[in-house]
Amino acid sequence: MSNLKSKLISDEELIRRCKESDQSAQKMLFEKYANRMMAVCMRYCKNQDDAKDLLQDGFYKVYVNISKFKGDSRIDTWMTRVFINLALNKQRHGRNKYSHFEFDPALETAAAEEPPAPENIEPEKVLEALNQLPEIYKIVLNLYAIENMSHKDIAKKLGISVGSSKSRLSRGRVMLNTLLNRK
């Protein structure tokens, strides 16, 4: 019943009520956007348990900072940024630190080749393959391909050079294609 309510109440009204710390509005906001935000979380976490933790932490952060939402974008766009920033901050500050990974030089030559034509691969298989990538490649792939960020913005957000962003994207694509058996 409350999920039906959240569809009847406009985002503007939900936001206004959330800014007033209305718990029923917070619940409706969660119900309306939890699935969408969980998809974001899954792209930045290795497993579903970590994604669920990020989902909870992210919604807490949304509720605490909802007063900062100015309405310049859609609420789900703003929330996605909150979730991505939280995921990146957790990795930067020790939780989910990058694991050391040696790149296989044999794969380096594949990066120069033309990427394979898109094919119908189940999203679950792509997500599974993404989760097998080292974090340094997975994050750049997500930010570039899914969030449509430029290499300059990725470099700034991660504290790396533009060249490192480009290199990580290239290597991540090669590894992803290899994992998907698309050589």
The domain count comes to 2
The radius of gyration is: 18 Å
Classified by CATH, the class of the largest domain is: Mainly Alpha
In terms of DSSP E residues, the strand content is under 5%
Which bin fits the share of residues in helices?
over 70%
Number of E strands: 0
Helical stretch tally: 10
Molecular structure report:
Helices cover 71% and strands 0% of the residues. The protein is mostly helical and 183 residues long. It has 2 domains: 2-92, Rna Polymerase Sigma Factor, Chain: A; 105-179, Orthogonal Bundle (Arc Repressor Mutant, subunit A), CATH 1.10.10. Mean pLDDT is 81; it is low at 95-117.
Features:
mainly alpha; Rna Polymerase Sigma Factor, Chain: A; Arc Repressor Mutant, subunit A
Quick take:
The chain has 183 residues and is mainly alpha-helical. It has ten helices and no strands. It folds into two domains: 2-92, Orthogonal Bundle (Rna Polymerase Sigma Factor, Chain: A); 105-179, Arc Repressor Mutant, subunit A (Orthogonal Bundle), CATH 1.10.10.
Q: How would you summarize the topology of this molecule?
A:
Elements: H1 2-8, H2 11-19, H3 23-44, H4 48-65, H5 75-92, H6 105-112, H7 123-132, H8 135-146, H9 151-158, H10 162-179
Helix pairs in contact: 1-3, 2-3, 3-4, 3-5, 4-5, 6-10, 8-10, 9-10
